[in-house]
Specification:
CATH topology of the domain at 6-12 and 24-118: Deoxyuridine 5'-Triphosphate Nucleotidohydrolase, Chain A
Distance between the termini: 41 Å
Oligomer: single chain
Helix content: under 10%
CATH architecture of the domain at 6-12 and 24-118: Distorted Sandwich
Radius of gyration: 19 Å
CATH class of the domain at 6-12 and 24-118: Mainly Beta
Number of strands: 11
Strand content: 25-35%
Structural class: mainly beta
């Protein structure tokens, strides 16, 4: 059953939606008065014109679009970005141009994906030591597979 989320859309673009029945993410669109040119390694916050009120216990995760990443070298500075349930400001997307060429973003262009996810709050239980596991303290690349 879908979660109901209040949204204000100040842009002329449609609200985010799922492109296919199996999609987990909804595309976010740029809301720009004129095209923006991003130089190589330049980063900028891109407005969407969207404001939302997530229910307590939910977050919105903002992720790069794979097509923009592979075809144009555009990604997000922090990924996934998190929008908390108590945030009421405009959804802004921090895009970076990782390519060696200038990239142009235009109004209405799909620039990121948004995934709505439920989360649990944690409470710490202070201990003097932790229960052992087969892996123990083995870190990165330590799962025993090749």
């Amino acid at each position: 059953m879908p979660v109901h989320i209040s949204i204000v859309n100040k842009s002329p673009h449609e609200v985010p939606g799922y492109q296919t029945a199996g999609s987990s993410g909804m595309d976010l669109r740029a809301w720009l008065p004129e095209p923006i040119r991003l130089q190589p390694m330049e980063r900028r916050l891109i407005p969407t014109g969207l404001y939302m009120a997530l229910p307590d216990g939910y977050e919105a995760q903002i992720r790069p679009r794979s097509g923009l990443a592979i075809k144009r070298g555009l990604s997000l500075v922090n990924t996934p970005g998190t929008i908390d349930s108590d945030y009421r400001g405009e959804i802004m997307v921090p895009i970076i141009n990782l390519s060696t060429e200038v990239q142009e973003l235009t109004d209405g262009e799909r620039i990121a994906q948004m995934i709505i996810a439920r989360y649990e709050k944690a409470e710490w239980v202070l201990k003097n030591e932790l229960e052992g596991t087969e892996r123990g303290a083995g870190g990165f690349g330590h799962s025993g597979t090749h």
